[in-house]
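>> received
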Amino acid sequence: MHWTTVKRRIFAGSLAGLWLISGCGGIQARDLTADLEPETVDITGLTCGNGILAAKEAAAGYSVTESGGAVVDEKTGMAVMDFAVGLLREQMKEGKENELLSPLSMVSALGMTANGAQGETRKQMEEVMGVSAETLNLCLQYCREIFDQEEESELHLANSIWFRDDGNFQLEEDFLRTNTAYYGASLYGAPFDDTTRKDINRWVKRETDGMIEEIVEEIPPLAVMYLVNALSFEAQWQDPYEDFSVDDGAFFPADGQEETVEMMHSEEYQYVADEDARGFIKSYQGGRYAFAALLPGEGMELEAYVNQLDGMRLYQALKEPEYKTVLATMPKFETEDEIQAGKLLKNMGMTDAFDEDLADFGGIGTYAEDNLYISSVLQKTYLQVDQKGTKGGAATAVELSSESAAAQEETEKVEICLDRPFLYVIFERESGLPLFLGLMDRPV
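>> returned
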């Protein structure tokens, strides 16, 4: 079913006032979310026997806890982690320092887009991400609803869809309903001029608590839709660093030039290791989220370590730590990054979606009866790690264009000093889903 220009005329009278700025800094685009009346999908308190979850479990990769709450299963968590590592590996080829990405934000924006993909385009998107669009729908609804329902939740996720509202867009209502039901996506009709650019950036800044100020620098003439995810994370350490545990120390970047940075010292009790690296996990308050760092062995460069790493190995290391006392030393750092992910995703096998002739986004609709294709995928990230905790933000925008328009006894102590380049990940402990994944080459 198309969301036609005729249907939009029905809304015109009641929505005309929304074009006006509602206060200083208000969004001028038409908010059509309430008029869509999406079907709600409740995944809380589900059990295998109630018929709702049971019908989706096998295909969507969900299991339940003994108390009946839906959780993301190992297969799904591992697939998202593997996609994250693959994307980081591609990003690393660009040769920048301090690479940082938000896998959760990336799959949120791509997941919304995949709901409108068909045929080979959808197949490639699902293969690169490692999970079906249906699986992502449930997985990311779990993140958005279960995490966000917690009082004073550390993680906030928001999604929005912006389309060129000039009478030429024939939108598929099923696509819109799916994304509002599972992603809680807001829907905006906009003129796609400079006011729209400002609106999108204003929305992103608000939803990331000011950490990401701009995701769209300009709106190209052929752009007709943006699917945007915003993520913010702020958490205090479960065991914060005292002032006396912070001092100046040496850090040795890959170029060998010693630098003096602020180092934080602590005792941690979860040791992680694989055949090429070892590290530790440090929990945030409440225990749902954690920070993990892995330091490659002596003589192995970080790039070489990442090139042979896969998501399964990293996922299992984080889910199955050893309980040892770790004398941990870690630098304070603040970092931000920006990646044009289109080329990276094409290198990973997601090619048709970016081809104006081969892309099949018929599930989204058509613009002036022309084909839709992805013209860019941009992500911006920010992360600050200090003695109190961690604060991070991320925003990912997919631009669509038209052709025309449990503790054990301690057995030993391990000393780990992150005084040279290391890999780190911030993840949700139960699902293993990575919020942030990065390489620290040189603390800032």
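>> The chain has a mean pLDDT of 84.
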